[in-house]
Amino acid sequence: MRNAEEQAVDTTGAGGTQETHDTLEQRVRNLEQRVETLTAAVRALAEGLELSPSNGADDGGRGARGARLAHEILLSRGL
Asked: What is the distance between the alpha carbons of residues 31 and 40, in angstroms, rounded to a whole number?
């Protein structure tokens, strides 16, 4: 009995090519979703860490809020 990884790359059997194609498409969709999630989290963190000229050295807790928001984004999307 072959393991799932071997089955995913098997293109020799009847329908094997379609199964492999579907598996690859699903993996790409999953990776795209993860990249979008990470992009949103990094954006929230970067915005929280940006210094506003009006805030000067005192950022009013923006960095902590940005980090908390980034963390919540990752948690809400299962990362």
From this structure: 14
Query: What is the rounded CA–CA span in Å between residue 22 and residue 30?
Result: 12
Structure token digits, residue 43: 């954006």
Q: Please tell me the pTM assigned to this model.
A: 0.63
Q: How many CB atoms lie within 10 A of CB 17?
A: 12
Q: What is the rounded radius of gyration, in angstroms, for the C-alpha atoms of the chain?
A: 21
Question: 14-33, pLDDT tens digit by residue?
Answer: 556 777 888 999 999 999 99
- Dmax (CA) of the chain: 66
How far apart, in whole angstroms, are the C-alpha atoms of residue 22 and residue 2? Answer: 19
Six-digit token pair at 21? 């194609």
